[in-house]
Write a structure and sequence with these properties.
Blueprint: H1 29-45, H2 71-81, E1 88-93, H3 109-122, H4 125-139, E2 141-148, E3 158-163, E4 168-172, E5 180-190, E6 201-212, E7 218-230, E8 246-255, E9 265-269, H5 288-310, E10 312-315, E11 346-349, H6 356-372, H7 385-389, H8 391-432, E12 439-444, H9 453-465, H10 473-481, H11 491-506, E13 523-525, E14 531-533
């Protein structure tokens, strides 16, 4: 176990629970700690017994099993449920010249929408995003990796992959440590020199680098390189050239298409303190001790129930003997009789008679763990109907979680906007021979605040029915569309036509002037003899 005093930074609160060595393929101390943290947080989310340290208090450890509750998963899922929901793309106008405004109606909008629709479906980006988002909350980091295969048919050459942060190792700019000059994507594969021995492994390293001149100015060129190294002998960021052990060069440094000027790896950080941090923090960071205490308490409570249910007994009698006269164990159970000698006693030890203190303590710890993450009962689906139907009460209870999520969404949306922009303006022209110069794709996410549909519909109807109307028919249709109603493009005309037809059927003479109703200027006698003007 690693002492927390030996580790600083965002992983300090998780360090006491580290049970893995991180990876035998990693040499940099900060990367070893980061990978250990990923392993721990994954174990905690999946409720694996090795995730936490629970003391077993039985007479022998094998007499008791540690119980772990899925409290970390509850926290992650509650946050995830209200975080960056309804992820999608939108098509926007774009101007290559910053001094000129983008066109009102981009000519490439339809083609861009069709391409992105196919890309999102073909690459399963909706499900990949949900998975990436969830485990970005668990681990603190999530990544995308774009590749292209020009041997495929046009329109199908670009691929978007999720990337395990354990395989990502950024290369800092030698001239400016706050910038990323490239990255290594590393995974463990079979050692090609030992094909018959499946235990022999090697490191396959995909490297992307920005090219720089002698003053550190980027030239705009991105190179791609693929090689296999001996385990832990690949990291040129901290190893001397003589310590690198390359087994084979699968692809020498090769420039990507000149139109691609951004690294094809996109990294989103959860709860990053500032831009100087390369990696983010887990949603579980800082409350690990509470989770461990919950597991310890429920394990102790389980032991109490066992001891109270089966009982602990005492006697001043000698142990029973078997047929050979050797001492043996007492047999205690249903339909058994314990026989003791005269003046000897066999009794039951009175122990804890209630587990209520355990349960109250566990609930106290669980409530604080949720509070620390900004979640309450309402975020986990347990809510009083009066609170759910009261807009202000619902907002007040969800605001801590929604406010924290909105802060994190700023980076998430920014990273995905950059990725979609690069696909639109770099990868599509380079590999799909499709240059929609006036159009780009951008990120779209929904509002996480739950909507009371009935109250919202009544509000819209009231605004339209008001005299004078406070909302146009088109505005009402637009608002109702966000609630799931589907309207045709000419919905307003059809609604007005139907309304006129219904009115005409109810009153055929509606809107017609009565006979003699027009003012002709003639003077007609009234019934009392006075002259009136017709």
């Amino acid at each position: 176990m690693t002492s927390p005093t030996s580790i600083t930074g965002k992983y300090g609160s998780a360090a006491p629970f580290f049970t893995t060595s991180g990876s035998a393929n990693v040499t940099a101390a900060e990367d070893v700690i980061r990978l250990q943290a990923y392993d721990f947080y994954d174990n905690a989310y999946f409720n694996r017994p090795e995730g936490f340290t629970v003391t077993l208090r039985g007479a022998e450890d094998e007499d008791q099993i540690a119980i772990t509750l899925p409290a970390p998963k509850k926290v992650v899922e509650a946050v995830n449920r209200f975080f960056a929901i309804e992820f999608d793309y939108a098509v926007d106008a774009y101007s290559e010249d910053p001094s000129k405004p983008p066109p009102d109606r981009p000519s490439g909008a339809e083609a861009m929408s069709m391409y992105m629709n196919n890309l999102f479906k073909r690459e399963k980006l909706y499900s990949k995003f949900n998975n990436n988002k969830r485990f970005g909350l668990v681990r603190g980091d999530a990544l995308w990796h774009i590749t292209a295969d020009d041997t495929k048919l046009p329109g199908q050459r670009i691929s978007v992959h999720t990337l395990d942060p354990r395989n990502y190792f950024p290369i800092a700019d030698a001239f400016d440590p706050t910038r990323i000059a490239g990255c290594h994507l590393v995974d463990v594969v079979q050692d090609p020199r030992e094909k018959d021995d499946k235990t022999k492994k090697a490191a396959r390293v995909q490297t992307y680098r920005r090219t720089q001149d002698n003053q550190g100015v980027y030239t705009g060129e991105i190179t791609s390189e693929l090689a296999i190294f001996e385990l832990a002998k690949w990291d040129d960021r901290n190893l001397e050239p003589g310590d690198l052990k390359k087994i084979s060069q699968l692809r020498p440094p090769t420039p990507l298409d000149s139109r691609i000027t951004q690294l094809p790896v996109y990294h989103w950080r959860n709860k990053a303190i500032d831009d100087t941090e390369e990696f983010g923090s887990s949603e579980l960071a800082g409350i690990e001790v509470l989770f461990n205490a919950i597991n310890q308490s429920i394990t102790d409570e389980d032991l109490t129930l066992v001891m109270q249910g089966l009982g602990m007994y005492w006697t001043n009698a000698a142990p029973p003997v078997d047929e050979t006269g050797a001492a043996t164990n007492w047999e205690i159970g249903p339909r058994t009789v314990v026989e003791v000698g005269a003046d000897q006693t066999f009794g039951r030890v009175t122990g804890v008679t209630s587990t209520a203190p355990f349960l109250e303590h566990i609930k106290f710890l669980d409530d604080y763990a949720g509070t620390g993450s900004g979640i309450g009962d309402i975020a986990t689906g347990r809510v009083d109907v009066t609170v759910a139907e009261s807009g202000i009460s619902l907002l007040l209870q969800l605001m801590p979680l929604l406010a924290a999520n909105r802060e994190k969404e700023l980076e998430l949306v920014g990273v995905h906007d950059q990725m979609l922009f690069d696909i639109s303006r770099m990868w599509m022209p380079a590999y799909e021979q499709t240059d929609l110069a006036d159009t780009i794709a951008v990120t779209s996410i929904g509002d996480a605040m739950p909507v009371n549909r009935e109250a919202r519909i009544n509000e819209i109807v009231g605004l339209v029915s008001n005299v004078p109307p406070l909302m146009t028919m088109q505005m009402a249709i637009d608002e109702l569309s966000t609630l799931g109603y589907n309207y045709p493009d000419n919905a307003v005309e059809e609604i007005l036509a139907d309304s006129a037809a219904i009115t005409a059927a109810a009153d055929p003479f509606a809107g017609q002037a009565p006979p003699g109703g027009e003012n002709t200027g003639e003077e007609l006698p009234s019934t009392n003899g006075e002259v009136v003007s017709a």
